[in-house]
Design brief:
This protein is 70% helix and 0% strand. The longest helix is centred in the N-terminal third of the chain and has 18 residues. The termini are far apart.
């Protein structure tokens, strides 16, 4: 009975025509209510977008799976959280390990429920971040959007892929669609600002970041605004925003590295070098992404060190590598033969 009602409702919502994809797939099992509640809690933690909340998100999704081992949304959410922890801007541990956990969870979600767009969306980002496989990631995202045209996160992810292809205005439009689908999400609002920043539409980016502050005091939003000011040469405005991002991120290594880059760009080299020394000491205690050292060396204008650390970033299979060609912080190297050879290797390396 429940299956019949669900099929009639889906047909009605589709204007009387049900997607062939949905027609040929079985209905997933009804989850245990306790697992469903935990998934809702985990999704809320995901929206906080801090390293601590992301690890709590992982633990909560795993609790849901222990209650209901066949609940596909819990695996899709777990995949997304592990992928987030390994993603550019995070890398809370070695990316290879975190991405492999994400991949296994995404594959399990798809096996349990082939109709679940979130499963394909999560796998798309593993293919993007871990494999540097933009074509494979795009196929998964297209399928996710076919299954769920209102999946805001899929548009956020699509916008990231478009950025690495240099299609900045298309990336803005994809991010705008994601923001329209989830207008209360600080993540979606900030993503739109960041895509405007990559598109060098700086006045619009500043307006978008400022508008986001009305809904939340989100550390990444301050980072985006600070980076926009830095690109405009407004260093006296950039440094306070980057400092605020460090504070709101609980002193995260990533935000400290970006602050060091901003300080170097502002001519405050001694302060930038002091942060680098702090992160070098921290790297003896926990994983610190080599990309951060490449970023700081770039800000200090150190060619050899920047290229060396980018090589280490490549070897770590960091999700930053597809972004490096379009990152404003490395544009001064864009015609350097060693840099262009490295980028060619990234483009030749999907899935390897």
């Amino acid at each position: 009975f429940r299956s019949d009602v669900g099929m009639r409702l889906a047909t009605s919502l589709a204007g009387g025509v049900l997607s062939p994809v949905l027609m040929r797939q079985p209905e997933p099992a009804t989850p245990k209510f306790a697992a469903y509640e935990l998934v809702l809690k985990a999704r809320s933690l995901r929206q906080q977008a801090t390293e601590e909340s992301a690890w709590q998100c992982v633990a909560t999704f795993e609790d849901a799976i222990r209650i209901d081992p066949d609940y596909a949304p819990a695996y899709a959410g777990l995949a997304d959280c592990y992928r987030l922890l390994g993603a550019p801007g995070w890398e809370a541990g070695p990316p290879k390990e975190l991405f492999e956990r994400a991949r296994r969870a995404a594959e399990r979600a798809i096996a349990l429920d082939p109709n679940l767009g979130e499963g394909y969306a999560a796998r798309s980002m593993v293919r993007f971040n871990a494999d540097w496989d933009l074509d494979g990631a795009s196929r998964d995202l297209d399928h996710a959007m076919t299954l769920n045209p209102n999946l805001a996160r899929a548009y956020q992810y699509k916008s990231a892929l478009l950025v690495t292809r240099g299609r900045f205005d298309d990336a803005v439009e994809a991010a705008r669609r994601g923001q329209e689908l989830d207008p209360l999400s600080s993540i979606e609002q900030t993503t739109l600002g960041i895509r405007l920043y990559y598109a060098r539409r700086y006045p619009e980016a500043i307006e978008q970041f400022t508008r986001t502050f009305a809904n939340s005091n989100f550390g990444v939003t301050h980072w985006g605004l600070g980076e926009t000011y830095r690109e405009l040469g407004r260093h006296s405005d950039a440094i306070p925003e980057l400092t605020k991002a460090v504070q709101l991120s609980n002193n995260s290594p990533y935000m400290r590295a970006w602050l060091a880059h901003g300080l170097a760009a502002a001519g405050r080299r001694d302060e930038a070098v002091a942060i680098r020394h702090d992160l070098e000491r921290l790297a003896n205690e926990r994983y610190v992404s080599p990309f951060l050292f490449a970023l700081m060396a770039s800000g200090l204008g150190e060619r050899e060190q920047t290229l060396s650390w980018l090589e280490k970033t490549f070897d770590a299979r960091s999700g930053w590598m597809p972004f490096v060609p379009v990152e404003p912080e490395f544009q001064w190297l864009s015609k350097d033969p060693a840099f262009t050879r490295l980028i060619a290797r990234v483009h030749a390396a999907p899935g390897t």
